[in-house]
């Protein structure tokens, strides 16, 4: 028998599938997804979902019944958050998902105004 190499190059190493999953794409700058961004399959996306990669198809199955957060999608698929964000950007560009961005945090409350309102309520209704 010919000598076989001790270590063969493994084409399914942990880094290769992630690159293959995203087709070498990076996250477009206009598609920033926070952990709490909600995604849902678009109503007309069922037919187009059949031609997707297995990972994108898995994401579509997860969000078919309602909104899930980006973090939940990453947790269910066992994919890194960055990869899930790239998949979601591709799905959103193709019109297959609907995205609901989180509501921005409210501006800081003026403590003097809140204190004045509280004092007014105490004076009016007694405390």
UniProtKB/TrEMBL annotation:
Pfam families: DUF742 (PF05331). This is DUF742 domain-containing protein. It comes from Streptomyces fulvorobeus.
């Amino acid at each position: 028998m010919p000598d076989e190499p001790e270590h063969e190059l493994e084409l399914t190493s942990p880094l290769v599938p992630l690159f293959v999953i995203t087709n070498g794409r990076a996250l477009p700058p206009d598609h920033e997804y926070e952990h709490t961004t909600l995604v849902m399959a678009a109503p007309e996306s069922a037919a187009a979902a059949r031609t997707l990669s297995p990972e994108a198809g898995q994401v579509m199955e997860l969000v078919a019944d309602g909104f899930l957060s980006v973090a939940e999608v990453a947790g269910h698929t066992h994919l890194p958050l960055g990869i899930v964000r790239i998949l979601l950007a591709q799905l959103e560009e193709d019109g297959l998902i609907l995205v609901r961005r989180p509501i921005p945090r409210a501006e800081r409350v003026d403590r003097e105004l809140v204190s004045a309102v509280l004092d007014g309520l105490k004076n009016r209704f007694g405390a």
